[in-house]
Amino acid sequence: MGRRSLSIRLHLAIYGALIVLPLLAAGLVIAKFYVDQAREAMTSQAIQTVTDATEAIDQELNRYKLALQVLESANYLSEGKFEQFYLRAQALSESVPDSAISLRKAYDGESVFLTTQPYGEPVPKMPDSALREADKLAVEHRSAVITDLVAGSTRPAVVALEFPVVVDGKVD
What we know:
Layout: H1 2-72, H2 82-95, E1 102-104, E2 111-114, H3 129-141, E3 145-146, E4 161-162, E5 166-167, E6 170-171
């Protein structure tokens, strides 16, 4: 009798396994399919978000570049009117939150002014090598250069839009 009941139990266990295992396998396949679809959708959404953010940043930087081009075209620099140029640069800087405009000499990076400081106040030389490299590229190519994120110990991290000023056909 013990042998026959064990055999029935074994048969029932096998029969139960034959019913449950295909359902379990189907559940795993469906779950994997769902996870793959969700991952693909999230990846696509992340790429779209990054693309949208990049386009928005590019549009902002192009607006700032255009504003700097308009500022440069005022002829104050070619006439040596640095204080008038400073006042216009300061007005532009104040219209853009958390921004500053610095006029630096191309050959040594020495600042003429910084719009966050009163005109005529000495401005420390820019020690950051990334900004100096961007200056060099802007002068060499005579076009705007956007820096990577530049962090400093005494100032917040910034992204700089380096814009060469051409006076009388040369970058000064």
